[in-house]
Design brief:
The chain is α/β, with parallel strands linked by helices and 522 residues long. Helix content is 26%, strand content 20%. It is globular and about 80 Å long.
Length: 522
């Protein structure tokens, strides 16, 4: 064969393979039923957790996917990527003809597209969480009142945390994470993107493989001498999962995320941090999510998050999203939209929403985000702070349910009970959270918010609220009790601030060092 002939054959083969690959797209294939006599594959630790929490020990969602259904698909040339017992289905790359074949199978309930396109969001490669003079990380620890946990000796000891992220490159070389290896605190790791990967911490495949390392540092990082803390849960144990190949807050490998959640639940892991969110980015834009689908019920991962929080008793802490400045989106991504999750937004130093931080949509009948804290570089690094916070709460009382954790977390926050769709109930406080755990029904206490409501009659055009001179207060102007129109910070000049009536503003929340005031314009 001539070189030209060999080149032509090679080129044609490449084109054929490329056309075949690009003619496929990943889909969920969901089934109608299960084999009810099959055995649930969950650990004794998982069963023990459920018994203690009063949850049904064995559930239908614990049963495996029907093996006969999977076999029938494989016989017809369909390769299964992931199987989900929670959702009762599999994921696979399908051609148009395969889709038509599957639609006619009597045991198939639904076929749902999944995107495989890699979309990198903006990241800041200049972040270095190992520098001992990094005051930004130190600031958020102070913002949430870390001394409240330190005085009580709480650091996440005895708590196991699952982290689902985009990669953990550099973890083994990180000075801030060295204790995870010397103390054997990483209990297991799975790579759903590259299952054959052996070197999970030192082999870099994509530009965002460091993202999970940053997240892990914000949960549990510390200096070797314990004098500098980057996270609250410095003594927690971890299971790690890599489910995505891209940067922050993008739509990608949702089936991997579901598989990781099921794996961690089967091991008895109750607390999950997932600093990933999905919104848009399909290869075919017609199949993108729409903003009104961020309703907690549409996306597959929102459905999985609902199962995790409502059936399995898991605590799922999620980044709210970084689309706040995107005029075509602005709102939270999924699975932050699932009601049972703890969606975390980002604030600046004054307690106002960071511009990029996604807001809660106006069509939900529950509040999102749930809480917020300081993060200069994305809600991806705000969620881990709250995960460490929750780990300390669980250490204080391991028998707390996920609903109790969420309730106490919100009640300990700076705006409670006047939450909004910018920063939820605000910034949690460690001392207040511990007070609630120890004395849940005793009100009021000095460590809890002092609040009051002022009703302004129709004929009053402005009011004055007394505040100490020189203090900086934050103000949220709202069209409903929850939906924010704008926000600002004001420095008090004359022992009071003045609020003027605005036809669009129906509620105004004023946050001072002493109290939270809700003004209602009648």
């Amino acid at each position: 064969m001539t070189r030209v002939g060999h080149f032509l054959i090679t080129t044609l083969l490449f084109v054929f393979i490329s056309l075949h690959v690009f003619s496929q797209q990943k889909y969920w294939v969901l089934f109608k039923d299960k084999e009810l006599n099959s055995k649930a594959s969950i650990s004794e630790k998982c069963r023990e957790n459920r018994r203690e929490l009063g949850i049904l020990e064995t559930q239908i969602t614990d049963l495996p996917v029907n093996s006969n259904y999977i076999s029938q698909l494989r016989v017809n040339g369909i390769s299964v990527i992931n199987a989900s017992k929670w959702l009762n289905g599999i994921s696979a790359n399908l051609t148009h003809s395969q889709i038509q074949y599957i639609k006619n199978l009597p045991f198939v309930q639904q076929i749902i597209p999944i995107d495989c396109k890699l979309i990198l969001a903006k990241t800041n490669s200049g972040i270095n969480y190992l520098k001992v003079d990094d005051l930004r990380v130190d600031y958020v620890m102070k913002q949430v009142g870390i001394e409240g946990f330190l005085m009580a000796g709480l650091n996440g000891k005895g708590v196991t945390i699952g982290v689902i992220d985009a990669g953990y490159f550099g973890v083994s070389e990180s000075l801030a994470l060295g204790h995870l290896f010397t103390e054997n605190r990483i209990l297991g790791i799975k790579d759903y993107v590259n299952p054959k990967k052996i070197n999970h911490f030192d082999e870099r495949e994509t530009s965002s493989d460091f993202h999970g390392t940053e997240v892990l540092t914000a949960i549990t990082g510390k200096s070797h001498d314990d004098k500098l803390l980057f996270g609250l849960a410095t003594q927690a144990n971890f299971y790690l999962a890599r489910t995505d190949t891209g940067g922050r807050e993008f739509r990608g490998e949702e089936d991997n995320w579901v598989s990781a959640m099921e794996w961690m639940d089967s091991l008895g892991v109750r607390l999950i941090n997932t600093s990933l969110g999905y919104a848009k980015g399909f290869s075919n834009p017609k199949e993108d999510y729409k903003p009104d689908q961020m309703n907690g019920n549409t996306s597959i991962i929102a459905r999985a998050a609902k199962i995790a929080t409502e059936e399995k008793g898991m605590i799922v802490v999620v980044s709210a999203g970084n689309e706040g400045d995107d005029r075509d989106w602005r709102i939270i991504s999924t699975p932050a939209d699932a009601e049972g999750t703890i969606a975390v937004g980002a604030t600046n130093e004054l307690g106002l929403k960071m511009g990029y931080s996604s807001v809660g949509p106006d069509f939900l009948d529950y509040l999102k985000p749930n809480v917020a804290c300081y993060s200069l570089y994305g809600t991806s690094l705000a969620a881990p702070v709250i995960t460490g916070f929750v780990a300390c709460m669980l250490q204080a009382n391991p028998k707390l349910t996920n609903k109790e954790i969420k309730n106490y977390l919100q009640k300990s926050s700076s705006l409670y009970p006047f939450g909004n769709n910018y920063i939820g109930f605000g910034i949690p406080n460690a001392a207040k959270a511990l007070d609630l755990i120890q004395n849940p029904s005793r009100e009021p206490l000095e460590t809890r918010n002092i609040t009051r409501t002022i009703n302004v009659s129709e004929n009053e055009q402005q009011i004055e609220i007394a505040v100490k001179e020189g203090e900086i207060v934050t103000v949220f102007y709202k069209k409903t009790p929850f939906l924010v129109l704008s926000q600002d910070a004001q420095k008090v000049k004359h022992n009071f601030i003045t609020l003027k009536r605005n036809s669009r503003v129906k509620h105004t929340t004023v946050v001072t060092k002493e109290e939270v005031v809700e003004v209602i314009w009648l």
